[in-house]
Amino acid sequence: MRCVIARFPFELTKSGVLESMKGVKPEQGFGESVIIGRRTYPVKQVGQVITRQDRRDFSAGEVLRAMTQLGFTCRVLPRAAVSTRVLGPHQQVSAMLGIPVTV
To answer: What whole-number distance in Å separates Cα of residue 83 and Cα of residue 15?
Structure first.
C-alpha cells in the first residue's frame, strides 16, 4: 500500500511492518498505540522504525491512518483524556453560556 508520511511516499505492507518491528522492544507509551503481533507499541515508535525518520517529522495521525489501512488494531485516546485543563468559576460560567473561554 502506498501512503505518505511526513511528505514522503512509502510503499508499506503488513508483512513488511511485522518484519520491521520484529525484535523491537515496545517503549512505555501513554498515547495512541498500535498492536503489532502480540505487542502494543506507541504510534511514534512504529513510525520512526518503519520510516527511519525523526519522530518530530511526522504526526501520530499519519501513522495511525497507515496502520489502520494495513489492518492493524490502533487505539486512540479519547478527547477528554487529552485535555485536562482546569477552569476557574468565571470560565466555567462562560463555557456554560457558550462564550469562548480564554486562558
So the answer is: 36
Q: How far apart are CA 24 and CA 49, in angstroms?
A: 9
The one-character DSSP state at 101 is P
The string of DSSP codes covering 18-69 is: HHHHTTPPPPP-SS-EEEETTEEEEHHHHHHHHH---GGGS-HHHHHHHHHH
Closest CA to 14 of 3, 29, 30: 3
Taking alpha carbons only, the member of 30, 28, 27 closest to residue 82 is 30
Over residues 17-37, the pLDDT tens digits come to 999 999 999 998 778 999 999
Whole-angstrom Cα distance, residue 32 to residue 44? 8
* 90 burial via Cβ count (<10 Å: 0-12, 13-18, 19+): exposed
Residue type for 54, please?
A: D
* pTM of structure: 0.71
Instruction: Give 10's strand partners.
Output: 3
